[in-house]
Amino acid sequence: MKYWYILLFFSLLPRTLFAQAKNSISGTWISSKVTYKDGRSLPDEHVLKYVYIKYQFYRSGTLNTALAYFEQGTDGSYEINDGYLYIKFPQGGIMNTYRIESLKDTLILTERGPKGFDDPDALTFYFVPEPIYQNGLMLHPDDIFSIRLQDTIYKQCQKIYAKYNGPSFQHYIYEGIKDQISMDGRAGHFAATFIVSKKGIADSVKILEGIDDEFNKRFIKVFNRSRKDWRPATLNDKSVSVQMMVELRYSTSATTIPSFFATQRANEAYQNKDYEVAIYFYDKSLQTTPTDKENLYRRGMCKFQLGNKDAACEDWNKAKGIGIGNNIAIDAMIEKYCK
């Protein structure tokens, strides 16, 4: 009889370990740095040097992946097996495989390199829980929108932001407008701010830059349906009011298609470190989409690699001034080289 118990114990052991691993990894983790496996720092021009990745793991085995702090991100699933973490598409196929180096206060994951997981050129990602990541960020005077009596309203930033109860508020707005009005022939940049209160209610919407009257009215209607679909921002474990922002960009096919292909050519040249060719195609793309933050940042990197630091700083500062988004890489380069 005791042998039956031993067999049962060992048959249940993998499930128990898997459940323990899922419990340990559940929560929201933010990438804090990326290095080579042997500890070397990535060069500044590496596309993953300042990458922002947010993994939100659930005990059910599902997860959300986001590359922007203010979005919940895309759905997926994960599996932990024999010390490896498998990130999967919603359909079940494996998107990425990591070897788990540590799963404690810091989640350390190694991605397979050309010669395997122990390859010195393999990439190692360091993740920390989102509250710890946010606590490590400084609060600047410019992160405050207004102070009235005892009520402070903050501006959304990585440290303080309200969370939309869905994958992407921007996508929700896009879809809500598209269902009612045609964007054929419409082009331009739309920007609006709103306040999410301490109770998680969105209000005080203000259109900073509209498209036209019909579009703007439709935006207000779509926005009003989502007023209660928020979780309030927190600071020091207390709910606070925060000013959020949504931006929409529309282009005609005459500008979108040439810009898309020019960006593809530019990125290929950037990856191959052919910076002169990359600048040529980034220039072409930015002629039709001058507010493309990523292209401005990478064009600046190309100029910097060619020794033109002043021109690089101009591009980075221009990119920093364009709307919301992740400025981790931009801020790092400005702080390091443009002071």
Describe the overall structure.
There is one protein chain. The protein is of the alpha+beta class. The chain has three domains: 2-135, Beta Barrel (Lipocalin); 141-250; 253-337, Serine Threonine Protein Phosphatase 5, Tetratricopeptide repeat (Alpha Horseshoe). Helix content is 35%, strand content 30%. It is built from nine helices and 16 strands. The protein has helices at 2-25, 130-135, 169-178, 213-224, 253-271, 275-288, 293-305, 309-320, 328-337, and strands spanning 27-36, 54-57, 62-66, 74-81, 84-88, 94-103, 107-111, 123-129, 144-148, 151-155, 163-164, 188-196, 202-209, 230-231, 233-235, 238-250. The strands form three sheets. It has an eight-stranded antiparallel β-barrel. The longest helix has 24 residues, at 2-25.
